[in-house]
Amino acid sequence: MKKEIFTYSPEETEQIAYELALAINNGECEFIAMYGDLGVGKTAFVRGLAKVFSPNARVKSPTFTIVNEYNGGKIPFYHFDVYRINDDDELYAMGFDDYVQKGICVVEWSENIPDSIPNDAYKITIERVCDNENARKITIEKSED
Fold first, then answer.
1. pLDDT, position 145
2. What does pTM read for this prediction?
3. Could you give the CA distance from residue 14 to residue 22 in angstroms, rounded to a whole number?
4. Does residue 128 surpass a pLDDT of 70?
5. Across-strand partners of 88?
6. Among candidates 66, 121, 113, 110, which has minimal Cα distance to 88?
7. Domains (ranges, CATH) in the chain?
8. What does the CA dihedral 95, 96, 101, 107 come to, rounded to 10 degrees?
9. Which residues, 6+ apart, have CB-to-CB distance to 21 below 8 Å?
10. pLDDT digit string (tens) for 92-104?
11. How far apart are CA 42 and CA 107, in angstroms?
């Protein structure tokens, strides 16, 4: 499956994520790998996911903590920012594999951990488009294994 969507505001980006979360909110562990440059709206996308997976969460970027845990839904929701992770050993040391087996994992800067992304992960790429400051192209991909 591959789908491309254009949004023109952070609110529209959140809505696309909300709709994706509704489609996959089955109470099972899922992995959502996010790709995109600084400031393209990855955290806005996560806010939309959180509206379904952890409805009362106040989502903020976990840049300095690496992971924020939200437990307000049917299954734990983990929001990672791996911008400062240098290798798989650092991920392992923080217990990353345990998180992946316990809940919904959304990982910003997934390009930094290519070997740790499950084959069946959702891959979300957000890109700036046009000269409109808020215009984005969101590509949602999932292997059909």
1. 60
2. 0.91
3. 12
4. yes
5. none
6. 113
7. 2-142 (3.40.50.300)
8. 150
9. 48, 49, 51, 52, 53
10. 888 998 999 899 9
11. 9
